[in-house]
Amino acid sequence: MTIQWFPGHMTRARREIQEKLKLIDVVIELLDARIPVGSRNPMIDEILSGKPRLVVLNKNDLADPKVTAEWIEFFSETKGLDALPIDAATGQGVKEIIPRVKLLNSAKMEAQIRKGIKPRAIRALIVGIPNVGKSTLINHMAGRKIAATGDKPGVTKGQQWIKVGTEMELLDTPGILWPKFEDQAVGYQLAAIGSINEQILYLDEVAFHLIRYLAAYYPNALEDRFGVEELPTLEELEDNTVVVDVMEAIGRKRGALVSGGRVDLDKTSSLILREFRSGKLGRISLEAPKL
Ligand code: GDP
């Protein structure tokens, strides 16, 4: 489900997270490994105001592992943040969250021990934009189904702590943040991964952007999966009609036709996006850090 982010929604989302922050020790900031900066809330540093934070790059099963490694270096070197790649759907990497969270909380825990206070379980909150995998991660860590997927901001319910092992507790409702949708390039990336409403951007435009990007960075994905022969150069692809030619070639190969034998560009766009999102084009990252 996609949330429409009106200013009122943003204020409420922010207030809700700040209420929750009072209860917790460490934030788990969930980002999409394919667009870590694009899937980041533009005001996150301000909203979290200094809470210890673990950056988790989810859906790493769909991202380019080489680029993910660069992102980990980027977060560490430029932001001083520990970033962990995971795949919440299968649980790959999730076990590593507890030790990392413990490390982030160690100063606080040592201070408590020095004061003679018996340390309690570390309390953590998962935050992220819609569709990034918050509910999937909560359910995986809980070992059962807890959060309703597509939770809306502003719908508060009684909050509960979920025990994750003996040393950590997770708030059962995530903090939902709005994406950086005012940046058009990011809008296309978010639409490509299926995280913003397709009605906001035209499907064929999203597919256009994706094809140009793939031609530049992952030409094999177009050649191998869709059988595109003699991929035009990047310069040639700046011309929209050349991109349409590529799409028509794909549509024809796949039988996405309208009556009269013409290629159905909408159908072709959706099949390209569907196959990209499900990983059928291979592991692809849509942005790389500027190191
Ligand atoms: P939320 O809105 O942040 O709570 O996101 P959800 O947990 O509802 O997940 C959104 C979609 O992403 C669902 O279809 C999940 O199955 C899928 N998903 C979540 N984590 C992963 C992952 O690590 N890999 C893949 N491939 N899909 C995932």
* Known CATH architecture of the largest domain: 3-Layer(aba) Sandwich
Give the overall shape, derived from the CA principal axes.
Answer: elongated
- Mean pLDDT, rounded to whole units? 92
Secondary-structure class: alpha/beta
The major pleated sheet works out as: 7 strands, mixed
> CATH superfamily of the largest domain, please?
P-loop containing nucleotide triphosphate hydrolases
Q: Fraction of residues in helices? A: 40-55%
Radius of gyration: 21 Å
Query: What is the number of helical segments per DSSP (H or I, 4+ residues)?
Result: 11
Query: How many beta strands in the DSSP annotation?
Result: 7
Oligomeric state of the chains in view:
single chain
Q: CA-to-CA gap between the ends?
A: 34 Å
What is the chain-wise order of helices and strands?
HEHEHEHEHEEEHHHHHH
Give the total of domains: 2
Low-confidence region ranges: none
CATH uppermost class of the largest domain: Alpha Beta
CATH topology of the largest domain: Rossmann fold
Cofactors, ions, other ligands: guanosine-5'-diphosphate
Q: What percentage of amino acids are in beta strands?
A: 5-15%
